[in-house]
Amino acid sequence: MKYTKEERLDIGRRIYDGEITRYQAAEEYGVGEQTARSYMRLYRDANQLPPKHNTRNFHIALSSSSKPAGIKEFEAMTKEELIQALVKARITETRLKKGYMVKGDGPDKEYILLDSKNTK
Q1: Are the CB atoms for 14 and 25 separated by under 8 Å?
Q2: Closest Cα to residue 10, out of 40, 53, 32, 52?
Q3: Closest Cα partner for 12 from 34, 39, 33, 35?
Q4: In the chain, which residues have pLDDT < 50?
């Protein structure tokens, strides 16, 4: 279906303002999602507006109430302690990927296989 420039700008405005997504616009107006996206760009360019970035998945507001559990432990550490904890975490991650864990340290170190299969 053909739309006039004013109609395309209105569709683009609705998408740009967040009233509807480009997928909803595509369904509602019987156009492809890329066409709906181009209508939004047309509106944005016609009004000299900045590009809108999709912040839905990236917006994380870190307030004191939304900090992950255990963060206070890391906040109290020095830089050297943080580096040491990071190294330990990476070693543990690598061992888990290879299929084993280590319990204890020094002469009491015990290797625990996570799978009963032979690792060789």
Answers
A1: yes
A2: 40
A3: 39
A4: 57-65
Q: What is the pTM of this model?
A: 0.46
Contact 31, 7 (CB under 8 A): no
Q: Which residue has the tokens 């040491």?
A: 84
- Number of alpha carbons in the 13 Å side-chain half-sphere of residue 102: 14
Three-state SS for the chain is CCCCHHHHHHHHHHHHCCCCCHHHHHHHHCCCHHHHHHHHHHHHHHCCCCCCCCCCCCCCCCCHHHCCCCHHHHHCCCHHHHHHHHHHHHHHHHHHHHCEEEECCHHHCEEEECCCCCCC
